[in-house]
Amino acid sequence: MFDQIEASSIVTLLYQTVLGREPDSNGLEQYVEGLVSGHRTVAQIIREFAASPEYAQKRRLLDFNLMQFRKFPDAEVFVPPEVVDQLFDKTSIYWRSAASEPNEMYWSVVTEEKWNRELTGDDRVEFIETGKRYANRVLGLYETYSGKSVANLTCIDFGSGVGRLAINFASRVAQVHAVDFSESHLQELQRNAVMFDCASKIMVWPIRLPADLDKLPQVDLVYSYIALQHNTPPVIAAMMRSLLDHLQPGGYAFLHVTLAGAGYEGFVVNDYLTSIEAGTRMEIHILPRANINSLAARAGCEIVTSHCVGGTYTQYSEEIVFYKPMNGV
Questions:
Q1: Which domains are delineated in the chain?
Q2: Is the pLDDT of residue 87 over 50?
Q3: Residue 42 to residue 31: CA distance in whole angstroms
Q4: Cβ atoms within 10 A of the Cβ of 264, count?
């Protein structure tokens, strides 16, 4: 048998390595309870994961070999700043309208049905707590990679939403710069930060256009989770380049990106800008890994590692860890 802490660590690791994602709260509780009580073994959990529909979907995805998705031509990705602005402004329509309504604000961050309503104070506490595991994992990896404590760390949280991650980072680091293009989400973040007594450690940065990112300071750590994918490929590339430029030498970036999608063969700027439907709902866009490799080189960064954090029948995403060498070496 295992104690609670050991069981939680084991189950979390199994979710990450077998299913390629962080555990959901119900699954984590169920399997931890099984290990602690002795009603389940590690081998049984692995067999259950391997027999699950989710794992079957992941295998089918790999069979399609979407990780080897072709590189987009530079002309489709690196477009003039004024075009990036137009694309960004159109994509922002949903986030500044429907997604900013109280009943959809939290669901727009974590698309689980339980959050698709206006939340009570207790609900908000529960929601913010769901980001603790991600924050602790990233900060633990930062300490491992850098050999430094996180106590004096400065961070950029891109796509911070209502503060699910920023608040959990702020509990352990010196300062978090929370960035989002929905002012309603940032206002809710500030409300939540007061509730968690960390408002003094979080500075909010509403961005109306991508160039607003230039105002941010350089930091030790940049992270973005389930945010970049909601922008078009040229905007993803522009944002990633800017975020990497804001890393201090010796800093690390943890950026989650959707790399491939079945049927997503490319991106045509004019088609998107003239589309009536574009920007009116939550969208998922991709940027192939080959493009990201080129982008990292342009930003003078190395890719340390990456791992799958989401795979379905039609999409594949990874968290990619970047490092900016000291003195450009």
A1: 4-51 (no CATH), 68-328 (3.40.50.150)
A2: yes
A3: 9
A4: 18
